[in-house]
Specification:
By secondary structure, this protein is mostly helical.
Length: about 300
């Protein structure tokens, strides 16, 4: 495994849709939680234009890029330690992970134990696991589809951020596939979303926040990768429109009881990333942001006054 700094360089790119075998040779208003079918659409599609600061493509400095790559790769390690990370948090009614996430969890755990002697075996298993997820075309319900997308994204991040040419080549050739399944997730029927989250207010919020963070993380990963590959990112305006819950304590809550204690506004504030940045400034300097919020803040604002 190479350092994140080693990955910060331009690299050739071959755009190809679908699963491809590896090639070792190369100011809007806050978006409230949906209370009806119509409002559910606004959870994901409520912002129609980017804030002014995000209207143009962006080129990030190398130091910020290296930091982002490092933090993204750590999400795989975080998953093996805590069975959750900054865009995956299991639903409270589940005693075990969905099958696709369980498979990705095993692959990440194996990856974390890579040594010089077992690297080639680990590489093959991780890449096969990723390809199986990419090639899985079975129709599933929304919760299972979300889990499959999260599992794919988790391994996609791992492959892109490692620095190994075979890992990176495989992920690079499936960038379009990841984008397609993320767009499909955004377009799932709003009524179907509500059907999955009627158990409790907490379960309902957690399910939607998993979706929001998965979409946001996937788009952020693509932005970082475009910066590394092309020297500029053209999708930042779209990224700035994607929503996330502003309050960090809610994602950090370990139970429904903790979540209710941390919920000062009902429903919680959900803002597009571009608008949430202004709300995070004080929390950023005090170290009170969660991992994803901190990563998004540093990528945009830099390191000044922010503990890293």
């Amino acid at each position: 495994m190479r350092s994140p700094e080693a990955f910060v360089r331009k690299m050739p790119y071959s755009r190809q849709s679908g699963a491809v075998q590896p090639d070792s040779s190369d100011t809007s208003k806050p978006i409230k939680e949906a209370q009806s079918d119509e409002e559910a659409e606004r959870v994901f599609h409520g912002v129609t234009y980017p804030p002014r600061d995000f209207a143009q493509p962006i080129c990030l400095p190398a130091k910020r890029l290296a930091y982002c790559v490092k933090k993204l790769r750590h999400s795989a390690v975080e998953m093996t330690n805590d069975v959750q990370n900054f865009f995956i948090k299991p639903m409270p009614h589940r005693e075990q992970l969905p099958q696709s996430l369980e498979t990705a969890y095993i692959a990440c755990t194996l990856y974390s134990s890579t040594t010089e002697n077992n690297a080639h075996i680990v590489r093959g298993i991780v890449m096969d696991t990723y390809l199986n997820l990419v090639c899985d075309k079975d129709d599933v319900d929304l919760e299972a589809e979300l889990a499959k997308i999260q599992a794919t994204l988790l391994l996609h991040i791992l492959l892109l951020s490692d620095g190994d040419i075979q890992y990176r080549s495989l992920a690079d050739r499936n960038v379009d596939h990841l984008r397609d399944i993320i767009l499909r997730l955004q377009r799932r029927d709003a009524t179907e979303m509500l059907d999955h989250i009627k158990a409790s207010t907490y379960a309902r919020w957690l399910f939607l926040e998993n979706i929001r963070r998965t979409i946001l993380t996937s788009t952020f990963v693509e932005c970082i990768y475009m910066n590394l590959r092309d020297g500029i990112c053209m999708t930042v305006p779209f990224l700035s429109m994607l929503p996330i819950t502003v309050e960090a304590a809610l994602w950090a809550a370990k139970s429904e009881r903790d979540w209710k204690k941390a919920t000062h506004i009902d429903p919680p504030n959900v803002l597009p990333y571009g608008e949430a940045l202004a709300r995070w400034e004080k929390d950023a300097t005090q170290g009170n942001l969660d991992t994803l919020q901190h990563l998004l803040y540093v990528a945009c604002k830099g390191f000044s006054g922010v503990p890293t």
